[in-house]
Specification:
The chain has 354 residues and is mainly α. The chain has 2 domains: 102 residues, no CATH class; 152 residues, no CATH class. 68% of the residues lie in helices and 2% in strands. It has a two-stranded antiparallel ribbon. The model has no long low-confidence stretch (mean pLDDT 86).
Length: 354
């Protein structure tokens, strides 16, 4: 419209049109309006940057964050007088957009780190078999030492996963039951991913072990890895042949070792179990801090805010039982923990692994 008005000023000299007074006033403010428009577009770009960054599942988790952002921007859409200075409004909106965007990026970065640990676990081979001849007891001993080393690797990866998971949960710990429900869905997906990674690691290890024992069928390659001593029994008049170790002993040892490979996964507990235990510890700390603030006459408003609760003037007058009821209602998760077998049990009964 400003461009159109500028053309009017050109043809006004020809007497074709008379520019209304309000349009003249508008033209006098064109620089101010241009700056205002650019400020508004900054908000639009910041907001759209958030929307294109998150997928549908993430948007469900961040719904309350986005709703609060919408409430911040809404006055500018419905009630703001654009003839006034909008600097404070623009600043508030952009700050809110930046906060939400940083939270989204924190979630995505932490999730990426978790997925990297899943990938690391899935690529882990739990044995270290060389192309050489082994004596059976030495082979079992060396491979069991390798399994113990891999247990440490698995534990370190799981600790990183748990740390990143709880760091991410800080974004949602004070949110409503609806967001907690979405978070539990996210935890369930992590559970499935970790189980899949552990199963892939066990499967790769068994395939590698099988390749060394029975050879690579695709290449037609058969390289023996065990020393078998074959002798004639001097105590048998029929010249009986003895194998050391015997075939059954060899077979039994390998089958037992296979179970030990699967048992390595027993050290990894369910992610949801660890999440609920860690979350309960954090909640108990918040409750302890709130109770101490009330008892010592400290800043209860700050303690309430940290606990994600609105200060209630009657809270101090409630009985201990009523306080416990209110606290439980505030922090209880939407559903109890799903009954599922541990990873080691599910992997050991998997058809592909068996």
């Amino acid at each position: 419209m400003l461009v159109e008005c500028q053309y009017w000023t050109i043809i006004q000299a020809l007497g074709i049109v008379n520019i209304p007074h309000n349009v003249v006033k508008l033209l006098q403010r064109k620089d101010q309006l241009r700056v205002l428009r650019e400020n508004v577009m900054l908000i639009v770009r910041d907001y759209n940057n958030i929307i294109v960054t998150i997928d549908d599942k993430e948007r469900s988790l961040f719904k309350e964050h986005l709703d609060m952002l919408d409430r911040t921007i809404d006055p500018g859409i419905k009630r703001h007088n654009w003839g006034s200075n909008a600097d404070n409004f623009v600043y508030a909106c952009r700050k809110e957009c930046q906060d939400v965007f940083l939270n989204v990026k924190k979630f995505q970065n932490n999730n990426q780190k978790i997925n990297q640990e899943f990938e690391k676990i899935s690529r882990t081979t739990l044995t270290s078999i060389q192309k050489k001849l082994y004596i059976l007891p030495d082979f079992i001993r060396q491979q069991e030492e390798t399994l113990r080393e891999k247990e440490v690797t698995f534990t370190a990866s799981f600790d990183k996963i748990s740390l990143e998971m709880m760091s991410t949960y800080e974004l949602f710990i004070n949110r409503t039951s609806r967001i907690q429900s979405e978070w539990l869905k996210f935890i369930h997906r992590l559970d499935e991913s970790l189980e899949k990674s552990l199963k892939q690691s066990v499967k790769n290890t068994l395939l590698d072990l099988g390749k060394h024992i029975i050879g690579d069928k695709a290449r037609g390659e058969l390289v023996p890895i065990f020393k078998i001593h074959t002798i004639l029994d001097p105590n048998n008049t029929q010249w009986k042949i003895i194998h050391d170790p015997a075939h059954e002993d060899l077979k039994s040892s390998i089958q037992t070792f296979n179970k030990k490979i699967i048992d390595v996964t027993r050290i990894i507990p369910r992610i949801e179990k660890i999440f609920r235990e860690t979350r309960q510890g954090k909640i108990e700390e918040l409750k302890k801090e709130l109770d101490e603030s009330e008892k010592n006459g400290g800043n209860t408003a700050q303690a309430f805010a940290k606990a994600g609760m609105r200060p209630d003037v009657n809270y101090q007058n409630l009985s201990q039982e009523e306080k416990e009821t209110q606290w439980k209602a505030r922090w209880e998760l939407p559903r109890p923990m799903e009954e599922r077998s541990e990873y080691q049990v599910r992997i050991s009964t998997n058809k592909k692994i068996k």
